[in-house]
C-alpha cells in the first residue's frame, strides 16, 4: 500500500525514531544502557560472591595474616625450665666439732690418773713418754702412765685410727684440756664406758701418729 493510498491520518506511530529502531504498540524504544546493565549486575554479584568466599575461607583474618604474614619471632624468651634448680653443694665443710668441756675447769690435781697408750707403728717409739712430758709441763700433777695398747684393762690395739682422748664419768673438762695440750682434734674427744669401768684411770690418751715436740 502506498503512502498516498493510506486511508488513515498520520499518528505518533508513524514518526520515525532516530537510529531506525522499530516502533509499534508492543515495543518501546531501548537505549544502549538498558541492554548492558544486566551484564554489569552479574559481574558485580560474581565479584561479591568471590570476595565473600575468600573472607569465609580465611576466617575473617586480616589479609596480611590470611596470606601467610611473617611468623612470630623465634627470638622470644623460652619458657621457664621445668628442671629443678641445682641443690646447694653437699661438699661444703661441716661445722667444726666442739670440745665437750671447758679446759679452764679441768681437774689437774693428783687425783686425776691418765693412761697414755702407744698404739705402735712407724715413728711411734717414745711417743707415750713425749705425751707424759707435755702434760706434766701443762700442770697435770696426777700419775701419767706411758703404756702400749693391748695391755690388760686398757684399749685394744688398733681400736682407733687417730690420736684420741677417751674419758669416763664427768671428766669432759679434764679430757678437753688434755686434748688441747697434745693437739688432738675435738672430734676425737669422746666419752667411754671402758674408761668409766677402769679402777684407777679416769682418762685415756691413745696415740696413733707422732705428736709435735
TrEMBL record:
LytR/CpsA/Psr regulator C-terminal domain mapped to chain residues: 115-206
Keywords: Membrane, Transmembrane, Transmembrane helix
Endpoints of the signal sequence: none
Low complexity bias spans: 66-80, 88-98
Regions crossing the membrane: 36-57
Superkingdom of source: Bacteria
Region of interest (Disordered), ranges: 62-106
InterPro entries: LytR/CpsA/Psr_C (IPR027381)
Protein name as catalogued: LytR cell envelope-related transcriptional attenuator
Lineage: Bacteria, Bacillati, Actinomycetota, Actinomycetes, Micrococcales
Amino acid at each position: 500500500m502506498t503512502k498516498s493510498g493510506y486511508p488513515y491520518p498520520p499518528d505518533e506511530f508513524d514518526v520515525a525514531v532516530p537510529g531506525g529502531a522499530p516502533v509499534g504498540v508492543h515495543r518501546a524504544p531501548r537505549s544502549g544502557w538498558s541492554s548492558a546493565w544486566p551484564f554489569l549486575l552479574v559481574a558485580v554479584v560474581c565479584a561479591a560472591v568471590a570476595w565473600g568466599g575468600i573472607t569465609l575461607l580465611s576466617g575473617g583474618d586480616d589479609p596480611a595474616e590470611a596470606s601467610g604474614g611473617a611468623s612470630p619471632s623465634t627470638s622470644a624468651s623460652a619458657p621457664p625450665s621445668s628442671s629443678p634448680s641445682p641443690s646447694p653443694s653437699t661438699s661444703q665443710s661441716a661445722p667444726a666439732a666442739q670440745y665437750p668441756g671447758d679446759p679452764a675447769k679441768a681437774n689437774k690435781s693428783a687425783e686425776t690418773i691418765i693412761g697414755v697408750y702407744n698404739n705402735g707403728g712407724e715413728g711411734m717409739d717414745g711417743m707415750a713418754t713425749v705425751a707424759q712430758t707435755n702434760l706434766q709441763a701443762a700442770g697435770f700433777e696426777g700419775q701419767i702412765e706411758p703404756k702400749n695398747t693391748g695391755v690388760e684393762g686398757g684399749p685394744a690395739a688398733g681400736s682407733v685410727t687417730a690420736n684420741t682422748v677417751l674419758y669416763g664419768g664427768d671428766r669432759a673438762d679434764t679430757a678437753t684440756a688434755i686434748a688441747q695440750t697434745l693437739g688432738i682434734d675435738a672430734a676425737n674427744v669422746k666419752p667411754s664406758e671402758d674408761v668409766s669401768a677402769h679402777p684407777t684411770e679416769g682418762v685415756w690418751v691413745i696415740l696413733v701418729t707422732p705428736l709435735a715436740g
